[in-house]
Amino acid sequence: AVKAMDSLQALLHAHVLDARRDGLLEPVLTLLRRGAASADQAAIAERAAMLLLAAHESPAVMAHTRVSTVAAERNDADRAIGELQTAMDLDETHAETWARRAALHVREHRYEQGLADARRALELEPRHFAAVTLVGSALRGLRRFAEAREHFEDALRAHPWAPGVVTSIYQIDLALRIRSRADGVEADAEGRASETAADSEPAPTAPN
Questions:
Q1: Within 92-164, where are the H helices?
Q2: Tell me, what DSSP letter sits at residue 33?
Q3: What pTM was estimated for this model as a whole?
Q4: Contact partners, residue 10, CB within 8 Å, separation at least 6
Q5: How does DSSP assign 183-206, residue by residue?
Q6: Residues 50-99 pLDDT 10s
Q7: What is the spatial distance between Cα 134 and Cα 11, in angstroms, rounded to a whole number?
Q8: How far is CA 154 from its chain centroid?
């Protein structure tokens, strides 16, 4: 059974590589961006796009990526990140590896590292819509809400059905309103304190 699964994975991997070499990624991303008429259609296009983005010529890179995925599912973030680092040592130009490590860093609240990795993924593959979302998530974690919102809007333009992105924008708008309200209360308090201080100053005495 294990050999059969390995053979199936190798076969699927070969087909995905052929599809990527044939330039299928761009049409799939266009379908995701413009052609999906429902969440189900978008999910199919998303899965196809992620397979194409993850494809790599090296079986070793793919093997370390699979082990990382299993470790992440078991909440072993250190093992998962270590496997991705090994994959990067083999090829540091694979955007998907950087995006996966960014996702793990964000999940572990290591937002600065997640932001750096997600941005590196976009440098290597600007069409990587998941990396755009990860930049937004890292910025939200750093409480850089306005910047995060911009990236989530970019993510929606690339993938209008992207799971959780609309909710993230709503949460950011709520956080920005709370921050604005708090700033207003603080400004009012400072204004009242200044008025009180002015009222308490002794009146100037008339010269003799």
A1: 95-107, 111-124, 129-141, 145-158
A2: I
A3: 0.80
A4: 59
A5: HHHHHHHHHHHHHHHHHHSPPPPP
A6: 999 999 999 999 999 999 999 999 999 999 999 999 999 999 999 999 99
A7: 30
A8: 11
